Amino acid sequence: MLHSAARQVAARYASLARDDIGQHATASLLQILGSREFYDRNSHAAFAISRMLKRCVFEWAERECRALSLSTSLADSMDRFASETTEPIERSTLLRHFLDRCHRRGWLSTET
Q1: Mind listing the pLDDT tens digit for each residue in 63-101?
Q2: Vertex 50, ends 35 and 41: CA angle to 5°?
Q3: Domain range holding 24?
């Protein structure tokens, strides 16, 4: 069941590392086995564990892929903005101004 769930997630979300999927699936299984909901069950325990495990792993994979795509698109748009709007001399001036302000506020020191 654990291997099957991990394989299904890996097939659907190819951008996730198989090791990460396996690690999360194992952690989810251990959490399910230690949960109160598992101990309160009188029947169909294997079916309930399987269903809960698949739900947990697929929800995790969806969140991970959403976070990966969001961070990638944000980094791409920031790079595009920096290259389109700021000339190298302006970028250097902005950096010096920023560092000077940080130094005046005591956030940076002149020591290296």
Answers
A1: 888 876 655 665 555 666 555 555 667 777 787 888 888
A2: 45
A3: 2-85
